[in-house]
């Protein structure tokens, strides 16, 4: 960060040297300031212990495996303010309430749900969705334009599954509204390796790379929903999910 501040200072100085340098150096300054901003956001959102307090590793997960999992399963607590959560709900609730909860799913992955996709948001909520995208995806990463909205009933749950690689890429980012819940990750090639994730209300999770591809994920039903031996009672839950485009087959 000190080096970036020094570069910013140097470019500002050069801009004062002459008009012929102003445009060129101002563009360099703009790029450097963007990098500084990204580093600040990274430090604010993803501190070294930020995700770890929301992750419970099972006994079969080795110490060598934990850093890779923690790197690719990020939890940002209190990503939304109460006002932002309310703003999102005001926009999506009128439509969601017209839908019926379903207790079967096309690939048998979800029980007790209703869902939709949304392309356009009001101005305030567009800013929230853009903040999710900026936090989860690299600049220039092609993203699915439609945002997935999944409304899970209190008695609903999501069964273990891995999202199809045909429909989305290496990163899945989800906001949790209305309630806390527990997401469970299980290594697909060794079912004894289990990781439980506490998803707090108004948090954002970012699941990517090895965790996205190699682990099933699920939302536990209340009968088995615990975190660090404490019961976590899930109420009705709405998740707002952004994904990037699947990798090109070419």
Automatic annotation (TrEMBL):
<dbReference type="InterPro" id="IPR027450">
    <property type="entry name" value="AlkB-like"/>
</dbReference>
<feature type="domain" description="Alpha-ketoglutarate-dependent dioxygenase AlkB-like">
    <location>
        <begin position="154"/>
        <end position="243"/>
    </location>
</feature>
<dbReference type="GO" id="GO:0006631">
    <property type="term" value="P:fatty acid metabolic process"/>
</dbReference>
<protein>
    <recommendedName>
        <fullName>Alpha-ketoglutarate-dependent dioxygenase AlkB-like domain-containing protein</fullName>
    </recommendedName>
</protein>
<dbReference type="GO" id="GO:0005759">
    <property type="term" value="C:mitochondrial matrix"/>
</dbReference>
<dbReference type="InterPro" id="IPR037151">
    <property type="entry name" value="AlkB-like_sf"/>
</dbReference>
<dbReference type="GO" id="GO:0006974">
    <property type="term" value="P:DNA damage response"/>
</dbReference>
<dbReference type="InterPro" id="IPR032870">
    <property type="entry name" value="ALKBH7-like"/>
</dbReference>
<dbReference type="Pfam" id="PF13532">
    <property type="entry name" value="2OG-FeII_Oxy_2"/>
</dbReference>
């Amino acid at each position: 960060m000190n080096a970036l501040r020094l570069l910013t200072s140097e470019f500002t100085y050069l801009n004062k040297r002459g008009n012929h340098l102003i445009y060129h150096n101002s563009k360099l300054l703009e790029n450097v300031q963007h990098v500084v901003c990204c580093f600040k956001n990274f430090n604010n959102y993803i501190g070294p212990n930020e995700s770890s307090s929301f992750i419970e590793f099972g006994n079969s997960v080795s110490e060598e495996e934990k850093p890779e999992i923690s790197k690719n399963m990020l939890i940002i607590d209190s990503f939304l303010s109460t006002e932002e959560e309310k703003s999102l709900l005001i926009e999506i609730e009128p439509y969601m309430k017209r839908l019926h909860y379903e207790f079967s799913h096309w690939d048998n992955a979800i029980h007790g749900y209703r869902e939709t996709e949304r392309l356009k948001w009001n101005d305030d909520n567009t800013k929230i969705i853009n903040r999710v995208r900026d936090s989860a995806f690299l600049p220039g990463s092609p993203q699915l334009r439609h945002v997935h909205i999944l409304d899970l009933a209190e008695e609903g749950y999501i069964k273990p599954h891995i999202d199809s690689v045909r429909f989305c890429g290496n990163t899945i980012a989800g906001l949790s509204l209305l309630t806390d819940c527990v997401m469970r990750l299980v290594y697909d090639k060794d079912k004894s390796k289990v990781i439980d994730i506490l998803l707090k209300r108004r948090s954002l999770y970012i699941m990517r790379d090895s965790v996205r591809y190699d682990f099933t994920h699920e939302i536990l039903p209340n009968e088995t929903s615990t975190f660090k031996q404490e019961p976590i009672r899930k109420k009705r839950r709405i998740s707002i999910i952004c994904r990037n485009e699947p990798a090109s087959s070419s």
